[in-house]
Amino acid sequence: MKNMKSTSLKHAFDECIGTKTLLKHADSCRFLNWVREPEKRKRIHVFPALLTLLLIVGVGITGLVLIMGNTETELNPAVDPIPAVDPDPVIIPTEEEDVQPEETTVVEEPTLEEIFLENPKYEALYQELIDGFNKLAHYRDSKQAYAEVIIFYLHAVSTKNEGLIKKYLSPMFSSDYEEQLWFEKNLPFYSEVKDYDVEVMHISPSLGEPVVSIQIVYTSSGVTESRLYHLDLQNPEHDQYMTIWESHDTYNDDDAFWRTIRWNAQIGLTKELAIELFGEPTLKGSVKGEEVWLFDEVSSGSDYTPSLVSVAADAIRNQSVLYQLYFTFEDDQVTKYALYSRLEDGNVKEYIRNSDHEIQEGIYEE
Amino acid sequence: MLENLEHDIDIHRMSRENAVLYITENYGEQIKRLIFTYVKNYATTDDIFQEFLIKVYHNLELYSGKASLKTWLFRVAINKCKDYLRSPIHRLTVFQDWMADREAVKSIKSEMMEKEKQQAIVQSILTLSVKYREIFVLRFYQEMSIKQISNVLGLSESTVKMRIMRGKKKLREKLGGEYLEEYEID
């Protein structure tokens, strides 16, 4: 695809926001004015008696205001030389805050000790998490709470306790509707996996960012699936996301495009979620009694004739079409999908997967 | 140029006040513009910028130097913006923003010159939901790499790429396929 010159957009952004400097408005920033005027700050040391007097008067006025029921306060650096602390404390929801009213009946919570006893692996993971947080100087105080939340969450996943999954996950998920949708719609898909064997592959608390990545492998009836969780524990309400892929998929790291498509094409997707992820289908109809939807991406300026019964191999080879993805639906869920994309050598790669997790992969032959 | 500044200055060797002044002088304009892309209101931008400076003032010691200063500052600013967007005060103005967005999209349908087309793309980007908008802004306005964006937003690179892909689809819906062909964004 062609790259647009970002410089031209940069100017367009500037013009849209305003070509004049915005920083001049900082002159009206009371905090910046306070920072810029050392005399004002020094005056506090020069006139301690005056300061004490001001403080007494201030306390008196504040008390009076509180008594009158007006608790609203405003930062005024000129009076209060040290601006109000804005600590933005990390909040791990308490038991009371955390439980949604409708979920309280579902939750049956084990203790940490019980979880450790049941699955000693979690104890090792718990320690590993704490060690990880130890590397992050400013999260040391909360490391225990963070590690506990993660362990409780993993236990909930491994026992398929949806009430507890929601309890621990929802505070960590964005309030953004789409992310909620993603999780909600995937719950039935998760519950299809049987005989969980949760194994933590790696935990990577980022040194620079308050994000923990945990890759978990599930073994279900001989098929291994892997999920990578990114939990932003510093800001539980900010963007949280979960990416899913199958660990036995092999992919080239450079081929992010192929990977992205593969991550989102999953058995069990609903029609609604399929549209959410891939846009409106190019074609949909019935093939041999089965409902089939075709999704694709066509190169800019190219055209081809899509079909539900034949793969546009030539169009894929000459890169007019970047991929074709055929979903077969049964009762609003994907039961089979087939993905076609171009390989570097010009051949068309075929990847077919059915609801029994059987995979057919290779070079597409007409 | 900004990246180089970070190597020249040790922010922890300055007084808090000087550090704030240094940050304002070197990153202030860039951060104010970033804030504007979230809140789309000059007065609110001023307020959030002040909150951002206070937050930086009190939390300078939390900047470990492992991430770049710019990345850390952008992250603090973005978190402040998102706090605001979740606040009840903002929700009261959402309806007005929505009306403004509709007007912006409507204008795209008309005949436009080259420069106006670029403006239309930017306006459409600014009407996207925050999760897509922030990525386009960081990529095409702040000219960050995918890796830098993933660091600032705390997202994986694959998620950033996925959002660009989904954001492109949304932009196409707003602008029309033919329109975007000329201005392919990838």
Report on the structure:
The complex is a heterodimer of chains A (366) and B (186). Chain A has 366 residues and is of the alpha+beta class. Chain A folds into three domains: 6-67, no CATH class; 95-245, Nuclear Transport Factor 2, Chain: A (Roll); 267-363, no CATH class. Chain A has helices at residues 6-17, 30-36, 38-46, 48-67, 95-98, 112-118, 120-134, 143-158, 162-169, 177-192, 256-264, 271-278, 313-317; strands at 199-203, 211-220, 223-232, 241-245, 283-287, 290-298, 321-330, 333-342, 348-354, 359-363. Chain A has a six-stranded antiparallel sheet with strand order 5-6-7-8-9-10. Chain A has a four-stranded antiparallel sheet with strand order 1-2-3-4. In chain A, a hairpin with a 7-residue loop joins strand 1 and strand 2. The longest helix of chain A has 20 residues, at 48-67. Chain A is flat. In chain A, 25% of the residues are buried. Chain B has 186 residues and is an all-alpha fold. Chain B folds into two domains: 2-85, Orthogonal Bundle (Rna Polymerase Sigma Factor, Chain: A), CATH 1.10.1740; 94-181, Winged helix-like DNA-binding domain superfamily/Winged helix DNA-binding domain (Arc Repressor Mutant, subunit A, Orthogonal Bundle). Helix content of chain B is 78%, strand content 0%. Chain B is built from ten helices and no strands. Chain B has helices at residues 2-8, 16-39, 42-59, 69-85, 88-108, 114-127, 130-141, 146-153, 157-175, 177-181. The model of chain B is unreliable at 1-6 and 91-111 (pLDDT under 50). At the A-B interface, helix 1, helix 2, strand 3 and helix 11 of A face helix 2, helix 3, helix 4, helix 6 and helix 7 of B.
